[in-house]
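Try this one yourself first.
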């Protein structure tokens, strides 16, 4: 494993996810092939135009008499997480988790007061972290994540996702998820698709809540990952998170990870930034009729408005390519009737 040379501020912090709450597993949601869900009910949070485009594509690729038919085994849909399934501003949610973990662990680590990045993060001063860049981010993640057993880490994530609140919306993170995208994943699974998360966020972090939040089981979550150690302690097998190299599942790393862990080229891809562009290109190159969806954050009132001027979720070259290749660009202000279920 090695550190991806082009990873950026937001994605390096690792990311996270949230929840819509205890739906059925994907296997229980698959309708008989050829069954068409009523669009109004299935995709009600979408505006008419993007909803019609999604419906037309799904109908074409699931109709066995269509020249665009895709066999069930090849119906693979991949989604970025941060900025695609839930917000990533002002920092990715896993960064907020890391800050909270650092503060909780700080009393047992007085030596952190001598380290500017950690001291600043504990006290709410982000200047040392921004100045340190990648090195500082790795230091932050290492201090807050490493040397914990995977069981202990999972409990920490579970407690945080159940209790912490998004500062802008003052709601638990598991409620601040994009309703249209959750509806889309449900709709796809009802038509025989398998849905995967392919994110720069930490795989272990997302796997704790992905099933209940998105209906995506932990084994269909692909993300960044670090070193691990296996040992038997007092007769019990234990895996512990370790300092070491990190594989960052971003940019060109995403198609590589898809090949490594899925082994099939996706036919649908959802993303929101230049970090997802390689994954979108890979999907667009499928031998089947593909659908590439690019979310453009344009709603400052209901969510956030950003593209080029942002530390996380930078969108520039992917937007240009999307227009050249007729990918489906979703203007969130115009194309999402509802962004969150609580609106």
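Now uncover the answer:
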């Amino acid at each position: 494993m090695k550190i991806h040379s082009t990873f950026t501020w937001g994605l390096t912090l690792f990311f996270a996810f949230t929840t819509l709450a205890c739906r059925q597993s994907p296997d229980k949601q698959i309708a008989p092939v050829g069954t068409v869900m009523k669009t109004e009910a299935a995709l009600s949070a979408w505006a008419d135009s993007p909803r019609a485009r999604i419906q037309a594509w799904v109908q074409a690729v699931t109709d066995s008499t269509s020249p665009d038919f895709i066999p069930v085994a090849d119906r693979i849909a991949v989604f970025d997480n941060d900025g695609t399934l839930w917000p990533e501003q002002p920092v990715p949610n896993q960064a907020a988790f890391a800050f909270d973990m650092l503060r909780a662990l700080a009393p047992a680590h007085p030596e952190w007061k001598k380290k500017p990045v950690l001291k600043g993060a504990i006290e709410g001063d982000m200047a040392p972290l921004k100045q340190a860049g990648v090195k500082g981010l790795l230091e932050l993640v290492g201090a807050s994540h490493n040397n914990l057993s995977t069981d202990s880490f999972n409990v920490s994530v579970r407690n945080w996702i159940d209790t912490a609140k998004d500062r802008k919306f003052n709601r638990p993170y598991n409620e601040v998820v994009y309703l249209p995208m959750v509806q889309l994943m449900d709709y796809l699974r009802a038509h025989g698709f398998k849905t995967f998360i392919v994110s720069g966020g930490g795989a272990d972090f997302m796997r704790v809540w992905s099933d209940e939040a998105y209906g995506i089981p932990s084994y269909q979550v692909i993300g960044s990952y670090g070193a691990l150690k296996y040992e038997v302690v007092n007769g019990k097998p234990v895996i512990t998170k370790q300092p070491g190299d990190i594989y960052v599942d971003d940019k060109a790393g995403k198609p590589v990870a898809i090949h490594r862990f899925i082994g099939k080229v996706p036919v649908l891809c959802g993303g929101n930034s230049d970090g997802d562009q390689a994954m979108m290109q890979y999907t667009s190159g499928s031998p089947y009729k593909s659908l590439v969806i690019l979310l453009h954050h344009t709603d400052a009132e209901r969510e956030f408005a950003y593209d080029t001027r942002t530390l996380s979720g930078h969108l520039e070259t992917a937007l240009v390519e999307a227009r050249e290749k007729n990918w489906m660009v979703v203007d969130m202000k115009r194309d999402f009737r509802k962004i969150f279920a609580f609106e």
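Discussion: The chain has one domain: 9-91+154-335. Residues 1-37 have pLDDT under 50 and may be disordered.
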